[in-house]
Specification:
The protein has 241 residues and is of the alpha/beta class. The protein has helices at 26-29, 44-55, 68-75, 94-102, 124-134, 186-190, 200-204, 228-237, and strands at 13-18, 38-39, 42-43, 59-64, 78-79, 82-88, 110-115, 118-120, 138-145, 153-156, 162-166, 175-185, 213-218, 222-224. The protein is globular, with a radius of gyration of 17 Å.
């Protein structure tokens, strides 16, 4: 999908999964959702929204849950050039369950999905280009790390085909991990069971192996703020806005 303005992501809607409880960060951000943890005086979520603006995205759906009003009160219905709409979980549904709940708000054939608690410094247009080049049904943005024990590993075959997911082993070793950014065909989301607790990582992605699932390994820096030690790195990882 392209448009005359040369902004391939302009007509692709985006969903940011921002409904997590953030229990491991509760001592730091107990009064707000994890995505609203402050970095240089700005909510972490603002850095993701800036990344979308840079990529030329026009509209984002923020999937909220825990303390959702804290997000709405700050961002309301617009951030810079981005239109914002909300999909609110009344009870936790997991990453894929939240995605399915937001599906009625999505009208593009291709959907960009981002975890709200991680950031990968990558030009999103490159990710889109590789997805389209491969004719993928679903694509995952991946990154290399020297220590995969917190995340588990992803194994790739020829031309980026995902061939296996390796569970967290507790052993510090290098490898390729999921960076929490995806491109999905709209109909793939529509096929998920509604009103059901589902995990992208556990229930959806493993079933897509051999069904058009590809990985794109980025050289961009990656940060997941899910634990206090990594949240503390955010101040040096992310620039002031």
């Amino acid at each position: 999908m392209t448009n005359g303005g040369g902004r391939p992501l302009a007509k692709i809607q985006t969903i940011i999964l921002a409904g997590g409880l953030g229990t491991r960060l509760s001592s730091i951000v107990e009064d707000r959702p994890k995505v609203m943890a402050m970095v240089h005086g700005q909510p972490f979520l603002a850095y993701l929204l800036n990344q979308l603006v840079t990529a030329g995205v026009d509209e984002v759906v923020i999937s909220t849950g825990y303390l959702s009003e804290k997000i709405r009160d700050i961002f309301r219905d617009k951030y810079r050039s981005l239109r914002i709409v909300y999909s609110e979980e009344l009870a936790p549904l997991g990453t894929a369950g939240a995605l399915r709940l937001a599906w009625p708000l999505i009208h593009s054939d291709l959907v960009l999905v981002m975890n709200g608690d991680s950031y990968c410094d990558v030009p999103l247009e490159e990710f889109w280009f590789e997805h389209r080049r491969r004719g993928a049904r679903a694509s995952m943005l991946l990154t290399e790390t020297s220590d995969t024990q917190r995340f588990g590993r992803v194994d790739l075959g020829d031309d980026g085909v995902v061939v296996a997911f390796r569970e967290k082993s507790g052993e510090a070793r290098p490898g390729i991990i999921n960076a929490g950014i995806y491109l999905f065909q709209n109909r793939l989301i529509a096929e998920l069971e509604p009103d059901t607790v589902l995990s992208l990582e556990m229930d959806v992605l493993p079933k897509l192996i051999g069904q058009g699932l590809f990985g794109f390994v980025s050289e961009g820096k990656f940060l997941d703020i899910g634990i206090p030690e990594d949240y503390a790195r955010a101040a040096t990882f992310l620039p002031r806005m």
